[in-house]
Design goal:
Structural class: mainly alpha
Number of helices: 18
Oligomer: single chain
Number of strands: 0
Amino acid sequence: MFIIKRYEELDSIRGLASLTVVICHIISVSSAYGLVVFLSTTPFLHLFFASHEAVIMFFVLSGFVLSLPALSGKKQTYSEFIIRRIARIYIPYVITILTAVLLKEKFSNGGIDGLTEWFNRLWVDPFNWELFFEHLFLIGGFNTDAYNPVIWTLSHEMRISIIFPLILIFIVKFNWKYSLGLGLVFSCFGSLLHLKFGLNKVDFTYFLSIHYVFMFIIGAVLAKHKDFLINNFRNIPKAIRIVFLISGLLLYTYSSWFFPNIEILHNRTLEEWATSLGCAILIIVALGSNLISSMLKAKFFRFLGKISYSLYLIHFMVLFTLINVFYDKTPMWSLWFLTVIISITLATASYYFIEIPSVNLGKRLTFKTIGRNKKAA
């Protein structure tokens, strides 16, 4: 049986990234948000609220993990890859969207005075069948603010997954310079199309998907050269390793501190390039540092990594349901606390009763397909 090594450190990083998204959204609903914005201009404080950076980390990690079978020599058909990917991502996503629609229609107050603009632009639009089907099938430039804003990343994950095996053929065959060059072409092309058509809302999320291919490629190139990079990291002096870590953190939080008032340095594409490089450095440190590796393998962090996908999908619905039902009836801090506890509890249940069965379904479907192909041969 072909076994692909699982890097538990990367699961933990994904879990911690999901937790930062949760914290950011919890803070973003109240007047405390202004204080958070001020504090987050300090790079290391920004780490606790770096929700967009967390999404870039998800993309880089996806590229890393999805490339491991091919880079390890495991043969996998395109249909096998797609079926498993759809089962893994899409089934939990659909259940989440259906749940979000029901909760929004049942509990939304259409906005609450005294809360932030971010809160009051979400869960306020009337139900729309066209928008619902766009969400259901991840098509068009749909308004993700309507039901569960975090799902904007899933549209990119699914679209890029469709073409990723083809890109991976190029990455396996050619050296890292050509691969990263290809990624830059995707990123620049997608960003330019987004810049040209995005203001007119012409399905511009498709153009961003083209741009985000670069982050998947960075992850795949990192996976291809992981042994070389990790060994070299371990062999450099401790002081330089610390500088390397700090550099990764600074690049990861680039948007918050690097001359924030100079607009040309903070267009979306440039910020995400810097964050992606930071992600790559942090992944190397996580796998190459014995201390950080052992910390990330702690039981709680590994547990957080397991439920990270469900936690990411579920927390927003929990937060907005609690606020719409209990605002002015209980202190806001208690709603924050309940959001974390309930989200983790539901995410755990979702992991065991939705995610694992979805993954197993994908395996069963591909085993049947492989079996039929062998009989045909």
